């Protein structure tokens, strides 16, 4: 059986980050986004052998994967398809901002969005959690540059505890899109650590071999 990659449905990283330019920003994370459930009729194609309860002294048994394999070439396309289907369902129940955010403000499993005021941001977050939950996803680990947004959310859904969140601090950093988000300055930054790797004869040979 050959597994195809599928269409590239991932949003543009540049457009995704530039679309979040209003005052009150937040970022959330979908838990296990690439582990979508597979249909029962397809599970026979992904069988594997394993020991019962991990006991290697027991005879091997045959199992089937109930979810799409994490890291499979098709996983990103499948996950994005499921996420966009969730957006279509959200259009039927929520205002248009919810479905639009699910379609355009997710980069793989990260949601980055900003709003003009706190009430709008809080309502959108709660609607997003509800809508993605109905689609089988759990949107959690929220971070915001606004303490008021965080205080309005359940503590278990926040990456930063609101009672420890202080924008008067000199610097408060969190990771976003592989970069550092300075919540105080509301800006993206990079942290680069240059390692001291002296050239040895082996490294020189390896470097040269890459250019031959």
The major beta sheet can be summarized as:
4 strands, antiparallel
SSE succession: HEEEHHEEHEHEEEH
Radius of gyration: 22 Å
Number of domains: 2
| Overall morphology | globular
Question: What is the highest CATH level, the class of the largest domain?
Answer: Alpha Beta
How many strands in all? Answer: 9
The residue fraction in helices comes out at 25-40%
Please mark out the parts with pLDDT under 50 across 5 or more consecutive residues, or reply none. Answer: none
CATH fold annotation of the largest domain: Alpha-Beta Plaits
Number of helices: 6
SS content category: alpha+beta
Features:
212 residues, alpha+beta, Alpha-Beta Plaits, 2 domains, 4-stranded antiparallel β-sheet, 3-stranded antiparallel β-sheet, 9 strands, 31% helix, globular
